[in-house]
Amino acid sequence: MDITLSYKDASIFYFMLMNWLSSVDWRQDEETQMDRRVGFAVAQLGPVHLQDTKTAVVVRLIDMLRQAHARGARWVTFPELALTTFFPRYIYETPEEYDIFFEEGLPSPAMRPLFEVAKDLGVGFYLGYAEKTEDNGVTRRFNTSVLVGPDGAILGKYRKIHLPGTVDPIGDLEFEHLEKRYFEVGDLGFPTFTTPDARIGMCICNDRRWPETFRVMALRGAEVFMLGYNTPTRNIHHPEPAHLREFHHRLSLEAAAYQNAAWVMAAAKCGSEDGFAMIGGSAIVAPTGEVVVRASTEDDEVIIYDCDLDLGAYIRRSVFDFARHRRIEHYGIITSQTGMEIDP
Ligand code: CDV
Q1: Sequence spans of domains, the chain
Q2: 118: helix, coil or strand?
Q3: pLDDT tens figures, 255-281
Q4: CA 15, CA 25: separation in Å to the nearest integer?
């Protein structure tokens, strides 16, 4: 009997074998072999120019929300400061000049149509915006994100804690980064929110470079981290090779997902805003640390994944079982000291 396989037969056999192997659940834990799948989408936003109106931007957001819903999403993550251009690159002197970028109330008049469509479709979302609020007669401004449930309920807010850049312009640069000028440091900590689908935590852009951000949310049980960002392609403060910008972005997401056994939804505002380039690279990362889907443009683009939340639960029961393996008696310095103090 001739059992010689042609190259084509061997390829088909290999393909079938791999398909079968990838369908086998490798989790040796009966409790988490039951899939808990939920559709999460990331809506990447292309450039928003200074002259673009908030109304026009919200039309784009609603269009992406509808696409995400049509493809099975229950939740959508939109970017940081999604309603306007990334205005902290510009120098403004008085609140009268920069208040046009801020929203008052939730939903603000500009946001309202998005809130209404999302509620009609039964889709929850994260939206980044510039928040202006009155607190005991004092006006305060934050770089904020809001989490709205699929039923239209406002679940809560997060106010950005790690604000990059400077208060005063550096000058002699292509553009500035003045988040410390326009926003206060967030005062809400890193809250997480229980929803019927998953426990969700929020953070914003520069927060992703700091591991403490995600560990605090993970200790509160977050299964999904939602994150919006505006990251200029060029590092004006600390020059570095261009490729590192995307690499460090992805590395931060992958590490956050893996080390905390959670899903990461990362939504960029990207492309060239009035000539100022920002990276794309919106992505969904699994609790294994693997990017499962990534945006391929620097424009409006929806990416979606059917996320198995029990995958994170399995990892939290094994390698990252915090209660069994963390050694807090050795971590005190993390909250008692900011800068480096070298041992004598
Ligand atoms: N919006 C940001 O927080 N951007 C910062 C840049 C300035 C480094 C970021 O971490 O991507």
Answers
A1: 39-334
A2: helix
A3: 999 999 999 999 999 999 999 999 999
A4: 18
Signed CA dihedral, 178, 275, 48, 71: sign only:
negative
Which residues does the annotation mark as catalytic? 80, 160, 205
Mutation to probe ligand 1, out of 161, 205, 238 (largest number of atoms < 8 A from CB): 205
Report which of 225, 249, 214, 219 is spatially closest to residue 147, judged by C-alpha positions.
225
Nearest atom, ligand 1, residue 205 CA = 3
Task: For a ligand 1 pocket test, name from 203, 206, 278 the mutation site with the most ligand atoms within 8 angstroms of its C-beta.
Answer: 206
Ligand 1 pocket by C-beta < 6 Å: which residues? Answer: 80, 164, 177, 205-206, 209, 229-231
pTM of the model: 0.92
Q: Is the pLDDT of residue 93 over 80?
A: yes
Give the tens place of pLDDT for each residue, 3-42.
555 656 666 555 565 455 445 566 666 555 557 999 999 9
Q: What superfamily would CATH give domain 39-334?
A: Carbon-nitrogen hydrolase (3.60.110.10)
- List pLDDT tens digits, range 121-167: 999 999 999 999 999 999 999 999 999 999 999 999 999 999 999 99
Cα-to-centroid distance, 205 and ligand 1 (Å): 6
Preceding peptide of 47 cis, ω within 30°? no
Task: Compute the distance from residue 276 Cα to the ligand 1 centre, in Å.
Answer: 14
